[in-house]
Amino acid sequence: MAIRRIEVRERVMAKNDELAAEVRGRLEAAAVPSFNLVSSPGSGKTTLLERTLERLGPELRIAVVTGDVQTENDAVRLARHTDRLVQAVVTGGACHLDARQILTALEEIPLADTDLLFVENVGNLVCPASWDLGETAKIVIFSVTEGEDKPLKYPKMFERSRWAVLSKTDLLPHLPFDVDRAVACAREVNPDLRFFFTSALTGEGMDAWCDFLRAHARGGAEATA
Amino acid sequence: MHELSLAMDVCRITEENVGRSALPRVREVGLEVGDRSGVELGSFEFCLESLLAQPPFSGAVPRIERTPGDELRVTYVEIEDGDPTD
Questions:
Q1: Which residues pair with A3 in a beta bridge?
Q2: Contact between chains at B74 and A2 (C-beta distance less than 8 A)
Q3: How far is A216 from chain B (nearest CA, A)?
Q4: Fewer CB near the terminus (10 Å): N or C of chain A?
């Protein structure tokens, strides 16, 4: 029996990347910048988004795709602040969002009337790093209740992110967390990573974060599209 | 984790390359797994073995080569050539 070898050389993630390219194309055509928020569970993604929508809602039309796995809690919280909210269809146990889900969610968003899109990914520092969603950039949220060496433990996520938000800074007086060491660990895996330091609770650092978003939103000074 | 969905994608790529009717004759599927691809090798291999053992496959073997970088790809498929017209 002869054995025949067929050369393939096809990337396994090719299907996702193809759909991510379609998402990117649609967002760029509509000039909507998009940020994929990634983090471990409990870092404060939803709270940061709530405070962000409160502050910027009156001036920017912000859409959010959220990927809560088991409940609609995040969607309910965010729906109070934006009328452009889509809960991605995720099945229980899903560890990340993929480009197909974003493409489906885009159908429900009036892109021509949207200035900025957030994707709130599933809380997980491993899997979402591997899935391109067609976003402008990933932003990793990292809270001061986590270890300073988290970037070294989950390097891919920090490497793939362009910005980082160190959240819950109001807790710093109560914790032995060393901010300089955390930033150094992150820059060890990604020397170009730029940081924001925020407390969604007290509002500390939220001005710089919101200025950044204004600049990157459609029509802003840094808008890429 | 997502190793099972990756393994299912490997089956899809294999089918696209050899055709559905040839799947029972697939003997080996060659893969490159980058050391920074984020793939948990043991789990991925287990998923592949499980899928390739059942119909429409009939016990094909995954051959994984570790490579530097973050690529994950199917490199080749070996089939038993029963019918040269396949």
A1: B80
A2: no
A3: 29
A4: N
Q: Report the 10 Å Cβ neighbour count for A87.
A: 19
Q: How many whole angstroms separate alpha carbon A167 and alpha carbon A44?
A: 7
Which positions of chain A have pLDDT values less than 50? 225
Residue of A nearest to B1 (CA): A95
CB contact, 8 Å: B83 with chain A?
A: no
Nearest to A197 by CA among A160, A162, A168: A168
What CA–CA distance (Å, rounded) separates A157 from A121?
A: 12
B76–A4 C-beta distance less than 8 A:
no
DSSP assignment of A124-188, as one string? -SSGGGG---S-SEEEEEEETTS-TTHHHHSHHHHHHEEEEEEE-GGGGGGS---HHHHHHHHHH
Cβ proximity of A101 and A89 under 8 Å: yes
Count of all residues that appear for chain B in the document: 86
Q: Which residues, in sequence order, are CB contacts of B24 under 8 Å at separation 6+?
A: B55, B56, B57, B58
Interface test with B, best of A1, A3, A4, A15 (most B CBs within 10 A): A4
**Partners of B61 in the β-ladder:** B28
**Domains of chain A and CATH, by start:** 32-216 (3.40.50.300)
C-alpha to C-alpha distances, A41 to A57, A77, A86, A91, A142, nearest whole angstrom: 25, 16, 20, 17, 10
Going by C-beta distance under 8 Å and a sequence separation of 6 or more, which residues neighbour residue A184? none
- Kindly report whether the peptide bond that precedes residue B84 is cis, defined as omega within 30 degrees of 0: no
Q: What is the pLDDT of residues B59-83, one digit of tens each?
A: 999 999 999 988 899 999 999 987 5
Specify whether the backbone of B76 is left (phi greater than 0), alpha (psi in -120 to 50) or beta.
beta
Place of tokens 């990927």: A67
**Of B31, B40, B43, B42, nearest in space to B67 by CA:** B31
| Whether complex ipTM tops 0.95 | no
